Amino acid sequence: MQPFRLRRLPGLQDYLPTLEAMRSFTDGRDEDTPDELWLLEHPPVFTLGQAGRREHLLDPGDIPVVQVDRGGQVTYHGPGQLIAYLMLDLRRFGVGVKRLVSLLEQSVIELLASYGIEAARRTDAPGVYVSGAKIASLGLRVRNGCCYHGLALNVSMDLEPFRRINPCGYAGLPMTQVSNFVSGISVTEAGGALANAMGLALNRQPAQQPGRPHAS
């Protein structure tokens, strides 16, 4: 099976153009299009998934709110958080969404274990947790047998905006991050380690690609 293309997008990538790029890539691909993994950071933004209810937006203030087409409720993205967007042909890969979510969670758990952080999944709420506090969130969309969106790992960020929402629809859900346990881990370093962990979990090797992604 061919490796997936790894793209690191520099700086802070605005949410809406990135969302449109994911949709365009997914709509323009065919059975021979290589799968891709995009690593990036967003400026501050709340995203409300397909199941999202506005009552979970407690006090967004000056942070924009974007309605999106992924699964799940409301979450926050901001600087210091690693975003990993996976564009994968599920038919070619031969897995369903539930199994893919499990593999992505496992890749984060393995990454955190390499830093000496003991993490686990929860059966009642997708994501990865450390001592009951959420450190990584997941949300996917499947269109024509291909997925996009992905996961967000809190590395070293301002967690205050999470207090303005009910994260993932859970009132009072505590949030945590890598820097609370291990100092000196950058988003770039965590991204490389996560790409390798995802490669092992998916039995695919990442192949670095330069520049911004194209629609097709």
UniProtKB/TrEMBL annotation:
GO-annotated cellular components: cytoplasm
BPL/LPL catalytic domain span: 31-206
PANTHER family listed in its UniProt record: LIPOYLTRANSFERASE 2, MITOCHONDRIAL-RELATED, OCTANOYLTRANSFERASE
Gene designation per UniProt: lipB
Broad enzyme group: transferase
GO molecular function: lipoyl(octanoyl) transferase activity
Active site: 168 (acyl-thioester intermediate)
Residues bound to substrate: 70-77, 137-139, 150-152
Record-listed E.C. numbers: 2.3.1.181
Xref: InterPro entries: aa-tRNA-synth_II/BPL/LPL, BPL_LPL_catalytic, Octanoyltransferase, Octanoyltransferase_CS
Function per UniProt: Catalyzes the transfer of endogenously produced octanoic acid from octanoyl-acyl-carrier-protein onto the lipoyl domains of lipoate-dependent enzymes. Lipoyl-ACP can also act as a substrate although octanoyl-ACP is likely to be the physiological substrate.
Catalytic activity: octanoyl-[ACP] + L-lysyl-[protein] = N(6)-octanoyl-L-lysyl-[protein] + holo-[ACP] + H(+)
Marked site (Lowers pKa of active site Cys) residue numbers: 134
Family: Belongs to the LipB family.
Tagged with keyword Acyltransferase: yes
Coarse class of the protein's main subcellular location: cytoplasm
Coiled-coil blocks: none
Alphabetical UniProt keywords: Acyltransferase, Cytoplasm, Transferase
Pathway: Protein modification; protein lipoylation via endogenous pathway; protein N(6)-(lipoyl)lysine from octanoyl-[acyl-carrier-protein]: step 1/2
Note, other: In the reaction, the free carboxyl group of octanoic acid is attached via an amide linkage to the epsilon-amino group of a specific lysine residue of lipoyl domains of lipoate-dependent enzymes.
GO biological process: protein lipoylation
Full protein name: Octanoyltransferase
Compartment list: Cytoplasm
